UniProtKB/TrEMBL annotation:
One of its GO terms (biological process) is siderophore transport. Its main location: membrane. PANTHER family: PROTEIN TONB, PROTEIN TONB-RELATED. GO terms for cellular component: outer membrane-bounded periplasmic space; plasma membrane protein complex. This is TonB C-terminal domain-containing protein. It comes from Adhaeribacter arboris.
Amino acid sequence: MKKILVVFVFNLICPFAFSQNSVLENDSTQMRVEEKMEKQPEFKGGINELSKFIKNNTIYPKQALADNISGLVVVKFVVRKDGNLSNIEVAKSLRPDLDQEAIRIVTLSNNLWSPATKNGNKVSANYYLPITFFTSKAAEKKYYKAKQ
């Protein structure tokens, strides 16, 4: 069986990790999502721990593996001021089974996030998380060669 390699795209996290000002309906209460913050939301333990979490919790969909599909899914979600996640959705799709797996991984990370701060207070903020799926080392090399 092919070794499955899931690689977190570190250089994409900074450009995607931004928020916007908006008011969202969630669980019958309004939640303000902040735009300008002192500190962005962060996975507890930092980017390296987030990468490990993604790698250790990924279950590559059988059909995507059989079809030898590799690529990027970007998941958008809100890190609420209590550290919980809400409004989880796919911002950049690859295909439905890999999109669902990316959402499942993000959902598993609920409560493992530190919220953003503004003026010293915890605030809710949008976060864009790129997750790259590779079926093999060869697919990873091909992907990055095409990006150059």
